[in-house]
Amino acid sequence: MEGAAEDPLAVALREELGEAIESARTLGGDLTLQVRREAIAEVCAALKEKHGFTYLVDLCGVDFPGREPRFEVVYHVCSPAANRRVRLKVAAGEGEAAAVPSVAGVWRAANWTEREVWDLYGVRFDGHPDLTRILLWEGFDGHPLRKDFPVEGIDTGAAAATAKAGGSGGGEA
Amino acid sequence: MSDPLLQRGEEIELGFGPRHPAIRGVLRLSLRVDGDRIVDCCPVIGHVHRGVEKLFELQPHADNLAHTDRLDFGAAAAVNLAYAGAVEKLLGIVVPARARYLRTILAELQRIASHLLWLGTHAADLGAMPPFFAALGERDGVLELCERYLEDYFESDVESEAGQDAGERLRLEGIRLGGLSHDPPAGWVERCREFVESFPAKLDGCAGPLTENRLWKKRTVGLGVLSPEAAVDLGVTGPALRASGVAWDLRKALPYEAYGEVDFDVPVGRNGDTYDRYLVRVEEMRQANRIVAQCLDRLPDGPVLAEPSAFEAKVEDETYHGIEGPRGEIGFYLVGDGTANPYRCHLRAPSFAHLQALPELCRGELVGDLVALIGTLDVALEEADR
């Protein structure tokens, strides 16, 4: 952990952005920065423009029902030139008030991945060009990757509708 | 130019899919076209969403390996390897050298199989049928080789717990946490060597009729150009990224398994068009063959599975592990909470990013070239939809 605090990249980001970086650790071999939610877009833009992190590898959510705020959004960014990967994390809650600033304007790859986090966790992204569901359909009730969403699923009414229409795929609703 | 078919001056909406012979999976495209010209394209995915990431949270790491097979029908071993690698990194399991070499061989054979399937179907989409039969025939040889690896094991051990889920054509099920289920059967290494020696000539038979073919070039050169900046920005990886001139390959950048110990080239394109993506994939098959040959020559002796005690570790940590799959970067982000199950498991699917890049390729192209543009990105919908 001491090593992570002295990481030149963590030091440089702290100098540029001050309080935006809450902590720096090394987890699973990658430098992991906890970022203040309001500052994430700014930090990402700095990483891309000044430090060559042009490639957004992955963006996903994690649910910790016991925590407040409840969710975590995790960004994996990579600098092909420096051959280096960094993980960023922000704590996020539910609803508009706790929305995370969108980074779709920094990397276009974030557009669909942020939609996925909204779809599966119900975390809002502020300034996203089109924050709609992506793997499920509009009108689906709930966010299935939340820990309190039932594994056996919920009744969406689709089976009943199919049976009513005389379809064969519905079976017993 | 005022060709009324190409420029009508009014835009209409056109639906494509969700089921279409040119899509290996279920994908809907909502197109806006002006005459025959694509103005915009909006992919609608999620038709085969199964909630795989939720399922991962319910079972121990080792059991989850079986789910990873179902994520890519064309290259199941690549997804196995990505998941096994992530868990090994999380739990600190050290894979024996022999297993690392054998895994590299299997991964490269899968790359060849996946690229051959792509080559055949992509050619067929564009109306070239002979390469379809040639490429799928050769792919069958690769699949049979992979199947033979597991055959003896399967037959002799059919009653055992391990035997029940071993050995299928498309789902290899040979990769385990900490190594492989077993050593290759007697004669397999020789058989594999025979394949390696004969493969370059076979590949010439598949790709030879296309590479300098005037019609093939007319259909593919300059089609769906992806600039290096746009490719990186959109998260495009694998052969599609390298065809745009970006020499980024995780086998070189962050070597895993035995890739740090073998010699191979990373083919790179110049124009980022459909033809370059074709050339890059064909050359990648030659390089994959080279890797397999070197691994066979240097195959170390020893066990193929780590000590079972290592799998008992319950770690409260997290890790990301990405590998160079046939389609692009396959990565797993794992969060452990001190139990035997992953607390969270996220798949970074190359096809998801490639589908997002599809509109970039399509804008301004003709509706008739759409199947070529979908094919050139080499997507697997089951992996994108999860």
Key traits:
heterodimer; A: 173 residues; alpha/beta; Beta Polymerase, domain 2; five-stranded mixed β-sheet; B: Cytochrome-c3 Hydrogenase, chain B; three-stranded antiparallel β-sheet
Describe the structure.
- The complex is a heterodimer of chains A (173) and B (386).
- In chain A, 26% of the residues lie in helices and 25% in strands.
- By secondary structure, chain A is an alpha/beta fold.
- In chain A, β1 and β2 form a beta hairpin.
- Chain A is built from five helices and seven strands; from the N terminus they run ααββαββββαβα.
- The C terminus of chain A is likely disordered.
- Chain A has one domain: Beta Polymerase, domain 2 (2-Layer Sandwich), CATH 3.30.460.80.
- With 386 residues, chain B is an alpha+beta fold.
- Chain B is 48% helix and 12% strand.
- Chain B contains 15 helices and eight strands.
- In chain B, the strands form three sheets. In chain B, strands 1-2-3 form a three-stranded antiparallel β-sheet.
- In chain B, a hairpin with a 4-residue loop joins β6 and β7.
- In chain B, α5 runs antiparallel to α7 and α7 packs antiparallel against α12.
Topology, pairings included?
The complex is a heterodimer of chains A (173) and B (386).
Chain A: H1 2-5, H2 8-17, E1 21-27, E2 30-35, H3 40-51, E3 55-63, E4 71-79, E5 84-92, E6 100-101, H4 110-121, E7 125-126, H5 158-164
Chain B: E1 11-16, E2 28-34, E3 37-44, H1 52-56, H2 61-69, H3 76-91, H4 97-125, H5 129-156, H6 161-164, E4 175-176, E5 179-180, H7 188-211, H8 214-220, H9 228-233, H10 239-242, H11 250-253, H12 274-298, E6 318-324, E7 329-336, E8 342-348, H13 350-362, H14 370-377, H15 381-385
Antiparallel strand pairs in B: 1-2, 2-3, 4-5, 6-7, 7-8
Helix pairs in contact in B: 2-3, 3-4, 4-5, 4-12, 4-14, 5-7, 7-12, 13-14
